[in-house]
Automatic annotation (TrEMBL):
Gene3D superfamilies: 3.40.50.2300, P-loop containing nucleotide triphosphate hydrolases. The lineage of its organism: Bacteria, Pseudomonadati, Thermodesulfobacteriota, Desulfobacteria, Desulfobacterales. SUPFAM superfamilies: CheY-like. The keyword Phosphoprotein applies. This is Response regulatory domain-containing protein. Residues 283-397 form the Response regulatory domain. The modification 4-aspartylphosphate is found at D332. SMART domains: REC. PANTHER family: PROTEIN PILG, STRESS RESPONSE REGULATOR PROTEIN 1. Keywords: Phosphoprotein, Two-component regulatory system. The keyword Cell cycle does not apply. It comes from Desulfosarcina widdelii. GO terms for biological process: phosphorelay signal transduction system.
Length: 405
């Protein structure tokens, strides 16, 4: 019997349909929660960070950290390992990670029209109409971002992505389960020697992709009978050197017989390939109301491979601290609204692991002493030499690395 992969909209009775199918077929249930757990165990990355890959919102630091790409690679590897365990029903986002070459997978979409979903949310979820709409729209936004990131399709309910689309507003749970079971035994999704080999290739490609991501690289990976192909989709200043590095990493992994590289369809676009540099901080938040100064500083840090984001006021900065978890902050003291001193106080009270560098042109010796007593990593005066600031950032990064180690 074949594998089942179900992707569904929120409040579409998918849980009931899945339970009905499992009771009838005996398939082992693989949920997103299980894959996240296994991915975290294999990679050492926190489950909460991996789970963010399912969110429509991408961190402002992702260009430098590749955290979303790494999380997806870890999820893909964990799923490939789980599929090796035999018959399974994959419920959730992770089912879309299975490549189409693995043809013994029945790909199912469970969705319903909005009135049905609202009724389910109001009767079963006990939500008001306003709360229900908010939850459904947020969930659909996450689904759209996921299919767009994986398959370049913005409509997550696009019929071409699936073998069958089940509209739950037109049938009951029993009929939906029966339809899945009827299609499960069709020849089109029957396991063959070729599809079994494709599943092995999926596992090998996932293992290679995860190792490359862990080394700071972001490339697409496919495999066929031990032959691995790496696709580079961004412009590279020194392509030959990158190809050598990629091959050196991939070629050492078990099961890899050969490694080749190629450039993809997006290679000639303006985006430049950027390897994650583990030696410098890549999540630096700059907070200053002097827009021209802070934008120039951000650009100068990026030229030194330090990933930075900018906030122009204290309130925005504290929001970014909650949502994007910077490693290092550079803050000015004198700002309208929430000033630098208050930012330092709140950050050290709630996120003491973040290192804060005060960079100001208006501070006094008393301010310096107070900032250091509150836990600032360093106190620098404007104008600052960029080399001095870079060195201070590297020292802060090294302290963070040692604490994590």
């Amino acid at each position: 019997m074949s594998v089942i992969a179900i992707f569904s909209g929120r409040y579409c009775s998918a849980d009931a349909v899945i339970q009905d199918v499992i009771d009838s077929t005996g398939h082992r249930l693989i949920t997103d929660d299980r894959i996240v757990q296994k991915a975290a165990e294999a990679s050492g990355i926190q489950e909460s960070k991996i789970r963010r890959a399912f969110s429509a919102r991408t961190s402002v630091f992702n260009t430098f950290t590749h955290e979303k790409e790494l999380s997806i690679a870890c999820l893909r590897k964990a799923l490939a390992v789980e599929l090796d365990g035999g018959l399974a029903l994959v419920d959730g986002f992770c089912g879309l990670l299975i490549p189409p070459t693995v043809s013994h997978v029945l790909r199912v979409c469970i969705i319903a029209e909005m009135p049905y979903r609202l009724e389910q949310a109001e009767t079963i979820g006990k939500l008001t109409r306003k709360e229900a709409l908010k939850q459904i729209h947020a969930a659909d936004a996450d689904s759209s971002a996921w299919t767009d990131a994986l398959l370049s399709v913005k409509d997550p309910w696009e019929a071409s992505l699936y073998d069958m689309v089940i509209p739950m507003n037109r049938m009951d749970v029993a009929r939906a389960g029966a339809l899945i079971e009827e299609n499960l035994i069709k020849d089109a999704v029957r396991r063959t020697s070729a599809s079994s080999q494709a599943q092995k290739d999926f596992l090998l490609a996932a293992a290679v992709e995860m190792e490359l991501c862990r080394a700071g690289h972001d490339v697409s990976v496919t495999a066929e009978n031990g032959a691995v192909v790496l696709t580079i989709n961004k412009q590279v200043l020194m392509l030959a050197r990158l190809e050598e590095e990629l091959k050196a990493i991939a070629g050492t992994l078990p099961g890899v017989e050969s490694v080749s590289t190629r450039v993809g369809k997006n290679f000639h676009e303006a985006t430049i390939y950027r390897k994650h540099n583990f030696e410098v901080p890549s999540k630096v938040l700059l907070v200053d109301d002097e827009r021209e100064f802070v934008q120039t500083l951000s650009e100068r840090l990026q030229l030194r491979d330090m990933g930075s984001a900018v906030a122009y006021d204290g309130e925005s900065a504290l929001t970014l601290v909650k949502e994007d978890e910077p490693e290092v902050m550079i803050i000015d003291l004198k700002m309208p609204g929430i000033d630098g001193m208050e930012i330092l106080r709140q950050v050290k009270a709630t996120r003491p692991e973040i290192e804060v560098i005060v960079l100001t042109g208006h501070g006094s010796e008393k301010d310096r002493q107070q900032c250091m007593q509150m836990g600032a990593f360093a106190y620098l005066q404007k104008p600052v030499d960029i080399d001095e600031l870079s060195a201070t950032l590297k020292e802060a990064h090294e302290k963070i690395r040692q604490v994590k180690a």
